[in-house]
TrEMBL record:
Pfam families: Ion_trans_2. Its main location: membrane. It comes from Exaiptasia diaphana. Residues 88-148, 180-258 form the Potassium channel domain. This is Potassium channel domain-containing protein.
Length: 304
């Protein structure tokens, strides 16, 4: 069976082989992640369910509540928690709060703590996101390109003016520099979260990564601006700083992805791009390789 599969792979054209291998890697990675998360998290879930059952039973016996009334009570509490108005004594949809929400929409962070509850609000959210997400993506791409080019030019300047040599490994240096900046931002964000949100340092790091990667689970969310409604200036400052920080962070992530893609195009590490594909499989691959070689030669000539 294994020999048959290898022969089947060898018979495929380069792009088809590439697609098959990458798709296989994707699903294997999904299965691996599912197995790890099940092993780590399932036990905690069972303990939490058991604890909830005990609390529910104690509450039922103490106040002599029927099973139906208990179910209705918890259903209403669950609805209030899911829709974000449980234990909230401020206007979540103030202008500052709404501005914070629109930022989570167009950046695709989507914490989930705020969401439109009306039909018209949901309809508008759909169309707002359709146009807002590409606009935001273009802005972040432009900022990321500027950051990447600025860092690359800095390293070219160091190599030429200080080290008196032709620029070397510019893309690799750029990737490392961008990642150092992103990690520094995460470390600073974690410290701010400890001070302002009362989280642990690790929780702050976790929140920063989930936010800047736009995963946005919603288990940790910055305090709503309207919680500080007695200080309007603070609400405005908080909202502006949050947007600036997240925008710069997302732009840096975009910059990192751009730098990595350029690194892979320049010198694919360990055959990552091809994933076992022979570059001589077809004419298209040969032409692509020749173009890359010509681009590298032009870049070296320009550097000189």
């Amino acid at each position: 069976m294994g020999v048959f599969f290898l022969n089947f792979l060898r018979a495929l054209k380069g792009p088809t082989k590439n697609l098959l291998l990458r798709t296989t890697l994707f699903f294997v990675y999904l299965l691996f992640g599912a197995a790890v998360f099940q092993t780590i998290e399932s036990g905690e879930e069972r303990r939490e369910k058991h604890h909830f059952d005990i609390v529910r039973q104690n509450l039922k016996e103490k106040y002599n509540i029927s099973e139906k009334e208990m179910a209705n009570l918890f259903m209403e509490i669950s609805k209030a928690v899911d829709e974000g108005y449980f234990d909230v004594n401020y206007d979540r949809w103030s202008f500052a709060g709404s501005l914070f929400f629109t930022g989570t929409v167009v950046t695709t962070i989507g914490y989930g703590k705020m969401a439109p509850a009306t039909v018209w609000g949901r309809i508008f959210c759909i169309f707002y996101a359709i146009f807002g997400i590409p606009i935001t993506g273009l802005m972040l791409k432009s900022i990321g390109e500027r950051i990447t080019e600025g860092i690359a030019n800095f390293f070219r300047f160091i190599d030429r003016r200080i080290c008196n040599r032709d620029p070397q490994s510019i893309h690799m240096k750029t990737v490392i520099a961008v990642f150092v900046i992103v990690i520094s931002m995460l470390l600073v964000l974690a410290a701010l979260a400890m001070e302002y949100e009362g989280w642990t340092y690790f929780e702050g790091l976790y929140f920063g990564f989930i936010t800047l990667s736009t995963i946005g689970f919603g288990d940790y969310v910055p305090s709503h601006p309207s919680e500080n409604k007695d200080h309007p200036a603070f609400v405005i400052i908080f909202t502006v700083i949050t947007f600036v920080y997240f925008t710069v962070g997302l732009a840096l992530v975009s910059s990192a992805l751009l730098a990595i893609s350029r690194l892979f195009e320049d010198e694919p590490p360990w055959g990552f791009i091809s994933l076992g594909m022979n570059p001589d499989d077809d004419d298209e691959d040969r032409i692509t390789r020749q173009k890359l070689q010509a681009q590298r030669l032009d870049a070296k000539n320009e550097a000189r």
